[in-house]
């Protein structure tokens, strides 16, 4: 496979990435068509719309969207643009609505998008058909276990096919809830990073950077009594072994033996002695419901999953749902939430949130340093005309099933898919 | 909440002086001296932009440190491996509208507005605007911080990016 941006030679084990792909406005313009308008893009989670009439407004792939539940309980993703003259008809972040009324001239829509009324209807001709002037829905909306995605491409496969091997890893998250109901916890983190959006895809699954970028987090863990010494096995840089995996269709994940603790269900000293018995209770529930093997699979591994192109489910110190969109070649907007089992007790919920903040988010002990790293990369990329290529060949000489989380095999999965879609768009 | 000039055991002038001193220590990155201003049960909170009045036990915050975590945060910030703050940002805090909002037993509650300017080489100036809600207590006669809540006014962090220094 050779094209302008990704050059791979499997015989020589070289994989080079053109830095132009990370700085060019022309590439970004093409990505909107080739990537964001053809792939399934995460829009929100069913738990954010608990009751009929609940809504959330957000931007998805550059479009203003109302993610809402109508009177009958059905979930919609409506384009937030009045059919009359274009204004956003819902301007609040979230809430519960009986209808959406445009503030400009008062056109009013039902929560399923149907046009309900316009002021002074008699001024429109007989051919004016209200049924043709409902809010336009995102062309396709499907969900997998309450994670809702939209797609603009009628020819794209159904979501369940698109997700391919990612489904297994979403299951490992959702099965943490006894009832299979995970929920988005209140409090959203929305922040910009001055870096190309694809750098956050890489960073979300790149465990090679952990010892250097997250030294202070590892020290914090060590100070709290967590064992962070790498095991005595050649080639291991981290406190435990982990792999990087290809899940098909450009999706990828890390799959690591856990050392950092898990609210479901592996105790570490940071949780406090008091939490030991409770974590054991959670663990017993897993074993009873799912058996020893699957309970261990869920509780003793942590996994950072990327659903191509821009959804990260980091099931690590806690669970974060993170999505990000480019606003410029060198800038992205990140939105991140914490996810937890709906039936958690208040103490369990507090522990999950506390564990989240040890690592993740704009005030965490790790994410700000990731942001600093990505911004340093973007600054360095200004020399792309002279230093034209990045190397992403780490681990390439090894077989596919031997790719570690500190190799770059899983990142190559993303770039191959990205490259194929960009080629396809011509 | 009343807006008394005095509570039973502190004047606004004393609280203002204390907050200015705290701001000066933070701007100078004298973090150990700053830490010494906190009580052993001190909490430091930055609520999420969309839920400024929420409880950190049920809502995802930007920062929710108990005292043990706060000690670790200071350790981290003094380490050159805290890349987001190395070299340390230059900050300048403007504190105003200081009010004593209530007094309950040993605890004095105070509020103040802030603008924190943050500068880094090669980066845009970032302006953190919001208000503080403090709980102060006396230890051996001196005011100490028992709780410190920095509430940002922005609807989202957006261009501020991170809260990687002590806000």
Describe the structure.
The complex is a heterodimer of chains A (426) and B (167). With 426 residues, chain A is of the alpha+beta class. Chain A has two domains: 41-151, Rieske Iron-sulfur Protein (3-layer Sandwich), CATH 2.102.10.10; 164-424, Naphthalene 1,2-dioxygenase Alpha Subunit, Chain A, domain 1, CATH 3.90.380.10. Chain A is built from eleven helices and 21 strands. Chain A has helices at 25-36, 159-163, 166-174, 197-205, 210-213, 215-223, 276-290, 292-299, 346-359, 367-380, 409-424, and strands at 6-9, 14-18, 41-45, 54-60, 63-69, 75-79, 94-96, 100-101, 108-109, 115-117, 140-144, 147-151, 182-184, 189-193, 242-248, 251-257, 301-307, 311-315, 319-328, 331-341, 389-391. In chain A, the strands form five sheets. In chain A, strands 13, 14, 15, 16, 17, 18, 19 and 20 form an eight-stranded antiparallel β-sheet that branches. A four-stranded antiparallel β-sheet of chain A has the order 6-5-4-7, with no helix packed on it. The longest helix of chain A has 16 residues, at 409-424. The mean pLDDT of chain A is 96. Chain B is an alpha+beta fold and 167 residues long. Chain B has one domain (6-160): Nuclear Transport Factor 2, Chain: A (Roll). Chain B is built from three helices and eight strands. Chain B has helices at residues 12-27, 31-35, 67-77, and strands at residues 6-7, 10-11, 38-46, 63-65, 90-104, 107-119, 126-139, 142-152. In chain B, the strands form two sheets. Chain B has a six-stranded mixed β-sheet with strand order 4-3-8-7-6-5. A two-stranded antiparallel ribbon of chain B has the order 1-2. In chain B, a hairpin with a 6-residue loop joins strand 6 and strand 7. Chain B is globular. Classes of the chains: A alpha+beta (426), B alpha+beta (167). At the A-B interface, strand 14, helix 6, strand 20, helix 9 and helix 10 of A face helix 3 of B.
């Amino acid at each position: 496979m050779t094209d302008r941006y990704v050059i791979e030679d499997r015989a020589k084990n070289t994989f080079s990435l053109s830095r132009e792909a990370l700085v060019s406005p022309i590439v970004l313009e093409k990505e909107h068509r080739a990537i964001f308008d053809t792939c399934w893009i995460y829009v929100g989670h069913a738990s954010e719309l608990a009751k009929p009439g609940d809504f959330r407004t957000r931007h998805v792939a550059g479009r203003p969207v109302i993610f809402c539940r109508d009177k009958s309980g059905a979930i919609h993703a409506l384009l937030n643009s009045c059919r009359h003259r274009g204004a956003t008809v819902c301007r609040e972040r979230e809430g519960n609505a009986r209808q959406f009324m445009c503030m400009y001239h008062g056109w009013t829509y039902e929560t399923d998008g149907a046009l309900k009324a316009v002021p002074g209807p008699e001024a429109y001709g007989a051919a004016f058909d209200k049924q043709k002037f409902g809010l336009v829905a995102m062309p396709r909306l499907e969900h997998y276990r309450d994670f809702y995605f939209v797609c603009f491409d009628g020819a794209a496969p159904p979501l369940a096919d698109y997700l391919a091997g990612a489904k297994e890893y979403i299951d490992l998250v959702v099965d943490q809830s006894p009832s299979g109901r995970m929920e988005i916890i209140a409090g959203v983190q929305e922040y910009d990073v001055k870096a190309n959006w694809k750098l956050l895809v890489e960073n979300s699954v790149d465990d090679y950077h952990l010892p250097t970028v997250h030294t202070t987090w590892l020290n914090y863990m060590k100070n709290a009594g967590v064992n962070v010494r790498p095991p005595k096995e050649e080639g291991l840089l981290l406190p435990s072994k982990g792999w990087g995996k290809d899940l098909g269709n450009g999706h990828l994940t890390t799959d690591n033996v856990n050392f950092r603790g898990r609210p479901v269900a592996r105790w570490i000293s940071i949780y406090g002695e008091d939490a030991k018995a409770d974590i054991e209770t959670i663990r017993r529930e897993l074993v009873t419901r799912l058996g020893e093997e699957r309970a261990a699979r869920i509780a003793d591994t942590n996994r950072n999953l990327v659903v191509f192109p821009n959804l990260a489910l980091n099931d690590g110190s806690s669970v974060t749902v993170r999505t990000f969109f480019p606003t410029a070649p060198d800038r992205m907007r990140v939105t991140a939430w914490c996810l937890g089992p709906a039936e958690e007790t208040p103490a369990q919920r507090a522990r999950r949130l506390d564990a989240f903040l040890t690592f993740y988010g704009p005030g965490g002990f790790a994410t700000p340093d990731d942001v600093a790293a990505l911004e340093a990369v973007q600054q360095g990329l200004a020399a792309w005309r002279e230093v034209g290529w990045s190397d992403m060949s780490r681990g390439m000489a090894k077989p596919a099933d031997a790719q570690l989380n500190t190799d770059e095999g899983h990142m190559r999965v993303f770039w191959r898919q990205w490259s194929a879609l960009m080629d396809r768009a011509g | 909440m009343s807006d008394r000039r005095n509570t039973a055991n502190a004047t606004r002038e004393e609280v203002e002086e204390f907050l200015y001193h705290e701001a000066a220590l933070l701007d100078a990155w004298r973090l150990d001296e700053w830490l010494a201003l906190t009580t052993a049960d001190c909490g430091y909170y930055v609520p999420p932009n969309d839920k400024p009045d929420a409880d950190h036990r049920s809502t995802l915050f930007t920062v929710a440190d108990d005292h043990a975590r706060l000690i670790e945060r200071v350790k981290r910030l003094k380490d050159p491996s805290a890349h987001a703050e190395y070299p340390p940002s230059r900050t300048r805090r403007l504190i105003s509208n200081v009010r004593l909002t209530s007094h309950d037993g040993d605890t004095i509650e105070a509020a103040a507005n802030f603008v924190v300017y943050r500068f880094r080489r090669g980066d845009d100036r970032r302006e953190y605007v919001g208000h503080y809600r403090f709980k102060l207590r006396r230890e051996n006669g001196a005011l100490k911080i028992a709780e410190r809540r920095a509430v940002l006014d922005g609807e989202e962090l957006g261009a501020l990016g991170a809260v990687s220094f002590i806000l």
